[in-house]
Every structure is written in C-alpha cells, then in structure tokens.
Amino acid sequence: MIVYIEWVIITPIDPEGNLWLKFFHFSLIPMAGMVYLAERYMTLFMSILWVALYYILSVRKRILRITTSFILPVLFTVFLFIHFYYFGGIGAYSKKEVEAQKGVEIIWSKENFPKDEYFSWLQYYYIMSRHPREVFYDPKYNSIYINYASTYGEESEKENISVLKIDLTTKEVKHYESYYTRVMGMTDDTILIVPWFDKEIIELSKKDLSEIRRIPTQVDFWPQEFIDIYYDKKNEVIYLSNDMTPAFLKYDYKTGKLLAKYIPTKYEYGGTFWRINISSKTEYIYLIGFGTEGNIYEFEPENLKILRMLDLKLYGGSALTIDEEKNELYFQDGGSNKLYVIDIETFKIKRIMDGSVHAVKIYIDKIRNYCYLVSYFYGKLIVLDLSTGEKIKEIRLGGKPYGLYVYKNFLYTNSMLGVIRIDLNSI
Asked: pTM of this prediction?
C-alpha cells in the first residue's frame, strides 16, 4: 500500500508504457475492492477478525505489529480472492440447490469438461473449468457454445481448452484449444474468437470447431487483450474492443481489412472499452468506458468518431444493453447496485433502479416487461419488473455466472456448475 501511494503521488501515468503500473492501478486495486464487495459477509467476518487480532496482539500486548498491520490483511485478501475466483464466493450454490428451483435445469455439467493429457485433474477442475464466460444456443445445430477464461491471463505458449460445442441431440462435446480467450462472437455458421497476445481473430466452424481462417489484428499497441467482440451482420463488419490499453477497432468481415480504429490519447488509469451495442434504428454504436474519461460512449460507425459521451462520475460499468422500442440504454454500475436507464435522444439519466452490483449481462424481456441481470458476484439471476422497478425474483445459478442468451421461452446461462437453462414461463 505504501508503494502504491508513493506511485500515485510521484509517478504520472504514461499511456504508452508502464504496463505493470497500469495493471496495479487499473486492475489489481479495483479488483481487490470488487472482491471485497463480492464476498460480502465473508469480507465483514475477515475485517472483524483482523481488527480483533490487531487490538489483542498489537494494541494490548504490543507484539507482532508488522504481522497484524501488514501481513494479516494481505493474507486475508488472498484468501478472499481464492474463495471467490476458484470456489465461486458466496454465490457458489450447489447443484442440488439450483435444480430444486422450478423451471431451472442444468443441461450440461462441468463434470463433463473435456480431458487433455497435458493437464492434471487439479488444473481442469480448479483453474480452467472455474471460469465460464459466454454462452450461445444455435437451433440450427441444436448446440450450446461456451468459452472459458479467467479474468486475466498471461502471455504463454501453452494453448488451453477455450471453446466448447455441446450437441444437445447427441450429447457429444467438441473443444478447441487456443491461447487465453475471453471473447467469443457468433455469425450464422461460424464463431469468432480473439486469443490474448495472439494478434489474430480466429474464425471457427460451428459444425465441428475446425479452424477456417485467421485475420491479423493489424495494430501494434501492447498488450492486445481483447475483451469484447461484436459481429454486425447487416454491414458485415467486426468490432473489437481492448483492455488495459483502451482501443476500439472495426474490420471488414469478408476481407479482414482493418477499416477504422479509435485509441484515446487521454485516459485516467489505463482502461477498457467493452459491452458493444448497436442501435438498429440509427446504427450508432454504444459502449462502456471503464477507467476512461466517460462511462458511456456513442460512436458513429463509419470512422469510429465519438458523437457523445456521458460521464456519470463512476469508475466504470459492468453491463449495457439497448431497449430499441423505448430508445433507452440500460447501464449497470460496476461498483454499486445502481441500474441507470439513459434516454438516448437526450443522453441523460431517465431513471435509476436497484440492479445488482457488477452484474455482467442485462436482457430486456419485452413480452413480460422484465429485466434480467446476471449477478456475477452473488451467483444469481435477478428479475426486475420494469413497470414498478422492483425486484420480483432471484434465481440461484451457482458460482460466477457470466453468459446470457435467450431463445424463445428459454434463457441460457453458465456458471461454475455448467450450462443452465431457465424456462421463462416459470418466473
């Protein structure tokens, strides 16, 4: 903490370098704060325990001062990190608890995670299969597509199992191995992934996950840690956004050519752009800036020029979606329960509801007039009634749920337990 304070006071942030300083400021310190929020009563228990030990040992007995003032808080924080990231935190509900709910079914269990001769059982069940990300369902193949990646990865030559195809008809599971892969996008018949540090967009076949082609990213900034991807079917372009060094890129889908890019010359802490959305009415692009000057950005699609920026005086958001019918944006704050509704025409706050801190996905159900939030911290699907703004239900999902995909009357998500299907008529 002393080193961190000295760095903040003495060292100016350099957007062109000092990656480890950016990581320390933009990622490590906020991540610790998020883990404290995610662990809730565990954080409270650890804090009370630390204060008690500090008082008894250092204040009363005047011993072990360095241990109680520095080492113990570090050890307690490490424990909370491990409890959340590798065991799912306080939202790590059991399979029995999840399946006991009406209309909730685990259609693929993580016990069926593929094996690989190069990895031990420990690596699979306590590292790789503990970090679910996106989930998609394609009725054409009657298959689920999911990917796995931890919050941050390292530059390594080792490829891990990153993408899975689960055939719901035959129960066959196929997998693709790549470098650290956090993002996955879908076209009609292919999958787009962007492994970190690989400097390429990889296109896979939905049929068998075979590799079709590789598209160079054609940018030279570092690190290339792509955190979001969006395929615009109408205009046949691919959009990418980057972490740590914020960047927003546009590619021609057919040729793979880089068409436009936006890399800010000024940002506060390092940062990221993510949660890309495109309005079907205006074709303008909306996304979240995390650690940047603004919290919500509006881009024109041709040259990726910023049209408007909304600063909510927040560190960053965790989820964003568009209600096309009402011309509104739903923005979940990453550090509080506040769910903002933004009027797109005026670009001002229209409404604030109680959402779920750091919920990672939002879906607006126009049929039922509900809003669904995937609570990454607390292992739940939060259901809000948009007519009243009140929370009407919480559905247990298991540790660290992340993806969300709705097809007809079913909602698909994934957690540390596996892939979960919810019958929306049961809500």
From this structure: 0.90
